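User: Design a sequence. Structure:
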């Protein structure tokens, strides 16, 4: 799945700004996120066959996951390089690593397409909802494969079909309808851009990986109220914030209010709200 209809340079620059602006929100909601999706980081590390002493590359690590999970598994004899396009997200990742007493993690600011390491620098690679935002994801995967020793494993994750991921599809659909936002060009990277086993597995296949396997998991978010849900989305969902912030004044608040109402409607008016979301995990051999 290629994104020929978009300008990769402009797209990455927008991503850089959007995720820098979301870093404060990720910091505020990090414990909430960790409690909901820790098992995804653990499974990615397992699928990538990270062992004690492993050298691990985390692509688009954001605030440090699954980099920190991999660092715990690799131990003091191993090492992790966590890369991301956002300096602000990485700064928070450094704080988290220091607080956890993990001295075997290095954080580097770089997008997936411009990574540069010697051949066979790593024993494993991971990316949790990260490389799916890269405009040239298959090419980036191929580049990463060159950094891995032969036979090493890479494991990545994506969200499922929109109808299977209500915590994202509800605010995205509501925003697009409320603000009359046109659909993005086909192939535009984003949180829901690799929603099938063929799409996420094809990313690794396109990078030259072999023995591709895809499995399904689930992440459930529990919210105290529709307002709590909207506060979460507003804080951490950089692509949704970017759509809304393109509009002026009252239109923004009206969009957030519409999201709150849509969440309440989806939950049948119940409090608290519980949204279960499908996750796809793809792994392959270099």
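Assistant: Done.
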């Amino acid at each position: 799945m290629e994104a020929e209809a978009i300008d990769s340079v402009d797209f990455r620059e927008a991503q850089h700004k959007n995720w820098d602006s979301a870093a404060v929100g990720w910091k505020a909601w990090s414990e909430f996120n960790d409690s909901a999706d820790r098992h995804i980081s653990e499974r990615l590390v397992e699928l990538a066959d990270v062992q004690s002493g492993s050298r691990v590359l985390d692509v688009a690590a954001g605030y440090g996951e699954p980099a920190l999970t991999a660092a715990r598994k690799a131990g003091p004899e191993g090492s992790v390089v966590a890369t991301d396009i956002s300096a602000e997200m990485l700064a928070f990742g450094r704080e988290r690593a220091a607080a956890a007493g993990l001295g075997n993690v290095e954080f580097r600011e770089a997008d997936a397409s411009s990574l540069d390491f010697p051949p066979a620098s790593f024993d494993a690679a991971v990316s949790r909802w990260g490389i799916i935002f890269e405009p040239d994801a298959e090419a980036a995967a191929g580049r990463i494969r060159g950094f891995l020793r032969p036979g090493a494993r890479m494991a990545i994750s994506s969200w499922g079909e929109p109808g299977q991921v209500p915590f994202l599809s509800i605010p995205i659909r509501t925003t697009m309808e409320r603000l009359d936002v046109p659909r993005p060009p086909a192939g535009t990277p984003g949180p829901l851009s690799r929603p099938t086993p063929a799409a996420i597995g094809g990313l690794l296949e396109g990078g030259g990986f072999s023995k591709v396997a895809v499995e399904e998991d689930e992440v459930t978010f529990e919210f105290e109220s529709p307002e709590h849900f909207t506060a979460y989305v507003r804080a951490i969902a950089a692509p949704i914030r970017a759509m809304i912030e393109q509009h002026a004044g009252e239109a923004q608040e009206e969009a957030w209010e519409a999201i709150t109402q849509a969440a309440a409607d989806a939950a049948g008016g119940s409090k608290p709200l519980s949204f279960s979301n499908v996750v796809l995990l793809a792994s392959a051999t270099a």
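The chain has a mean pLDDT of 92. The radius of gyration is 18 Å.
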